[in-house]
Write a structure and sequence with these properties.
It is built from one helix and 25 strands. The chain is mostly beta strands and 297 residues long. It folds into two domains: 60 residues, no CATH class; 161 residues, Methylamine Dehydrogenase, Chain H (7 Propeller). It is globular, with a radius of gyration of 20 Å. The two termini are 15 Å apart.
């Protein structure tokens, strides 16, 4: 859905109706009760992101960026094999930032869609599992398939600003989010735990102490890394291990969780941290237990 507008991006599953195959994107206008446009591709569509100016379509090895005004391709970005359909875009009108996997495992490429500037960040040694941008695209959060570390980068220059440790054992991280006030980072994982981490107050300030080696690396075009240690989570919340959750932030230190089992949770943490308190828990629908049911988060 494009914000709170009447426009929706829809992708068919190809099973119940052959008119809506999984390799087409339909932009539906709910006001006119008709399709605004149809975009076709040679392979399956894995994800769609919308901005007021752009339609972003993610395939297994590429990302297409269309202009909403004329439906022409604004950018075609090649990626490493991307089965999760990873891609995120900023939503502030002043900046148009897109992040997606690079051409090699562990890489993230950040593109300024308005200025056509590309920055490649070596975020992890393993494949990227999930990523998230702030609303203005200034910060990028990433996690790898190893699932032990979450890293925060300055998306403009690729500097590693902060690093969080989820745990010592491998885990699949389903979702990561940065709060709009740039104070917190939340991550949900297959270990059945939601972790909330505290961002440094000066997270967007330039590092004050740059040594000679870092200066040389800048001259050579290699991005220096500024790390402040593996910081542990500030607050935690227990979740069902069998369910994948998308995480986001609400007002006043609340975290929102949407599960593929049709559940919604809202929990809160205080200034002391530790275990979070559940404020709300609802179940909106149940998924049928069939062999051909596929759910993508």
């Amino acid at each position: 859905m494009l914000f709170l507008s009447n426009l929706f991006a829809l992708v068919g599953n190809g099973y119940s109706n052959s008119e809506y195959p999984p390799n087409k994107v339909f932009i539906w206008n709910d006001h006119t009760n008709s399709f605004f446009c149809e975009l076709g591709f040679k392979s399956q569509v894995l994800a769609v992101k919308l901005r007021r100016e752009h339609i972003v379509v993610v395939l297994e090895r590429s990302v297409y960026v269309y202009k909403f005004t004329n439906l022409k391709v604004n950018a075609l970005i090649e990626t490493v094999v991307n089965p999760r359909g990873l891609c995120c875009v900023s939503q502030a009108e002043a900046k148009a930032v897109l992040a997606c996997p690079g051409l090699h495992p562990g890489q993230v490429q950040v593109r300024d869609l308005k200025r056509n500037i590309v920055k490649v960040i070596k975020a992890h040694d393993s494949d990227i599992a999930c990523m998230s941008l702030t609303l203005d695209g200034s910060l990028l959060a990433t996690a790898s398939t190893k699932g032990t570390l979450i890293r925060i980068f300055n998306s403009l220059d690729g500097t590693l600003l902060q690093e969080f440790r989820r745990g010592m054992e491998r885990a699949e991280i389903y979702s990561v989010a940065i709060s709009s006030d740039l104070k917190w980072v939340a991550a949900s994982s297959g270990k059945g735990t939601l972790h909330v981490f505290h961002l440094r107050p000066d997270i967007l300030s330039s590092p004050k102490n740059i040594d000679h080696a870092s200066s040389l690396s800048l001259i050579k075009g290699i991005l220096p890394i500024y790390s402040y240690g593996n910081e542990r989570s500030f607050a935690q919340f227990s979740l069902p291990v069998s369910t994948k959750f998308i995480v986001g932030f609400g007002p006043e230190n609340t975290v929102l969780l949407v599960g593929i089992d049709g559940s919604f949770r809202r929990c809160k943490f205080d200034g002391e941290g530790g275990q979070m308190v559940e404020l709300e828990h609802k179940r909106f629908f149940s998924l049928p237990e069939t062999d051909d049911t596929t759910v993508v988060v």
